[in-house]
Amino acid sequence: MCSLFCGDIGDGMKDFDGSFSAIIANLFEGNNTKTAFLPCFLVSALIFSYTSADLVLNQTDLVEYVKTDKSWEISFENSIVDNDGDNLTFDFNDIWADGDVKVIDFFLDDISANEGYFVGYIDVKIIPEECNGVDGSEGQCENGIWLSDGGEWECDSVSATLLGDNSSLSGQWFDSGNTLSGSDSDCEPIYLRIVTYPEYYLHENANQTAVNEFQALSPWIVGGWGDGVVSVQVNLDVNSYGGWGPMDDSEEITIQVSVHQFRPSANLISE
What phi and psi, each to the nearest 5 degrees, are found at residue 66? Predict the structure, then answer.
């Protein structure tokens, strides 16, 4: 288009020193130059203005979309870190004598969560000996005491604590969902729990407001939680028999540890 108007504009140009002011002066030196240059300038300015306006509007729409928070539902796929198929992470068994106080350590460095999973919480189950009497005798367990024609045996008193002082376990030690200690004298298991991941609500879905999926998931994809050592302290107080029968001076204790892992996913609810 410019070739129709511009023609030979070099005839009217005078010598110039290369400066911007000299260029402008030479462009408008003669009438022929003005006639050729102005249409080109106006058409170019019009095209540039239209393109710039369209780009600004599109960019404005994009920025508004990106800046707008959206509602997301965060759900969790849960499982237990289990290397041998028994639905447990650790399994420990030992004999405690009367008055024993033992600390059993479970090293989480020996295991690893699945790819894309994070450690949400850790359950510990302490199982004392079942309430029973002499092998082969008949009877029943009532209120933690085995009653039979062979005598009475009371359940031993067992207490257990997840040790937090100077612990290397990275977790939420003050979370309301924790159960850090317990005791029993009825031959029933003791259940302990430590929540390791912050703002993890034990299988419950969560709502999140964010501009995109990555930002919505960001609170639940931080590594480092659930590392260290789970230390379980067990105290045993053996109860003497309440009538006749053999003297009870020990207790078999089983400790089972289940490390629960989760993988989060985000579902867009509304924009």
Answer: -70, -35
Q: Cα–Cα–Cα angle for 55, 57, 61, nearest 5°?
A: 115
Tokens for 198, please give them: 């912050």
Residue 160 CB: number of other CB atoms within 10 A?
25
| 158 shares its domain with 51 | no
User: Could you report the per-residue pLDDT of 138-192, keeping only the tens digit for each?
Assistant: 555 565 555 655 555 567 899 999 998 878 999 999 999 999 999 998 888 999 9
pTM of the predicted model as reported, rounded to 2 decimal places: 0.69
Burial letters for 252-264: b for 16+ Cβ neighbours within 10 Å, e otherwise?
A: ebebbbbbbbbbb
Query: Which uninterrupted H or E stretch holds 142?
Result: strand 139-142
User: Distance from first CA to last CA of the chain, Å, rounded?
Assistant: 47
Q: Are residues 20 and 154 in the same domain?
A: no
**pLDDT tens digits along 10-29:** 444 455 566 656 666 665 56
Residue 150: left (phi > 0), alpha (psi -120 to 50), or beta?
alpha
| Residues 177 and 193 reside in one and the same domain | yes
Pair 120, 260: CB distance under 8 Å:
yes
Q: 44: which 2 tokens?
A: 């170019």
CATH number at residue 244: 2.60.120
38-to-2, 33, 144 alpha-carbon distances in Å: 10, 8, 105
> In this structure, are 32 and 130 located in the same domain?
no
Q: Which two tokens stand for residue 74?
A: 């965060």
Neighbours of 89 (CB within 10 A): 23
